[in-house]
C-alpha cells in the first residue's frame, strides 16, 4: 500500500483527535475510522465516515423516539426477522463513506453498482501516480477451461515470468510516455485528460464511495462471492470485515440468510419434499435442466 508519510500523518492526526458527540457510535466501527486496510499491491479501503449501528436499524423499524433498543436479544431477533423477510428499508438508515484505491479494471466492475454516490480522483486535473497492479504469483492464473468467465490453475515457471515481465514492462513504458507527453519542459505539454488514455487498465485510481447498508450488503453478496473476480473479491472481503465490526447483528444475519443461504425454485422445493418422503429423485425426473440440477445438488452438498 502506498500511503505517503504526510497522508499517514493526516490519518494519525485524525485518529488522535476524538470529538465529543451526542450521536450514536459503533465501537467496532470507531476502531476502523480513517485507517487504511491494504488490499492488492497498492490499494486500500478506509472508512472516512459512517452513520448508524445495529440499534439504528431497530430504531427505524420501530419508528421509536429513543434509542430503539429493547434488549440486545430482542434487537438481534428483530434484525434477523427483517433480513429474512426482505424488509430492507431499516438497513438503509445506516450509511458508510469509504475511500478506496483500486485498479481501473476493478473500478469498472465496481461502478456497475449504481445505488451509491461516487467521487473519483480526476486524471484531467491531477497527474496519476506510477502505480500499477501486478498480480502476486498465486493470482497469476491461466484461463479456465470450464468457465469462460474464470481462471484455472496458477501459471508457473517461465510462462509466469514472461507474463509478469510483459505486465511490468508495458506498464512502465506506458507511464514513461505518459510522463513525457505531459512534461511541460519549456513547452505546453499534452493535456492530462488526453495523455492518460495510453495508460493500461491496471493503473490505480481512487474514489470516495458512499452507500447505505442495504445496498452495501447487495454489493457484498455479489462481490464477496466465489463467482466474483479475485481482484474485486479481496476488496469485498476487506469491507466484510469492517461491516462485521460495524453492525455485528446485521452482518451475522446477512451471512446466515444471504451469503450462506440459498433460494430454491418451487420445482427444487418439490424435489426436496419428494426426497424427504424417500423417493429417488434424479435430474431426469426432477423437472430441472442439467444446469439447474447441478446447482441444486451443489446447494444440498
Ligand atoms: C459474477 C458477476 C459477473 C458479471 N458479469 C457481467 C458481464 O459479463 N457483463 C456486464 O455488463 N455486467 C456483468 N456483471 C454486472 C451485473 O450485471 C450488475 O450490473 C452488477 O452486479 C450490479 O448489480 P445491480 O444492478 O443489482 O446493483 P445496483 O446498481 O447497486 O442496483 C441495486 C438494485 O437496484 C435496482 N436498480 C438499480 N438501478 C436500476 C435501474 N436503472 N432500473 C431498474 N432497477 C434498478 C435493481 O433491483 C438492482 O438489483 C456481473 C456481476 C457479477 C457479480
Q: Biggest β-sheet, characterized?
A: 5 strands, antiparallel
Q: What is the number of independent domains?
A: 3
Give the helix proportion (percent range).
40-55%
Using the CA coordinates, give the radius of gyration.
Answer: 24 Å
* Average pLDDT for all residues: 93
Class by SSE composition: alpha+beta
CATH architecture annotation name of the largest domain = 2-Layer Sandwich
What is the approximate shape?
flat
Per DSSP, the total helix count is: 13
Ranges where pLDDT stays below 50 over 5 or more residues in a row are none
What percentage of the residues does DSSP assign to strands (E)? 5-15%
Bound compounds: flavin-adenine dinucleotide
Question: What is the N-to-C succession of helices and strands?
Answer: HHEEHHEHEEEHHEHHHHHH
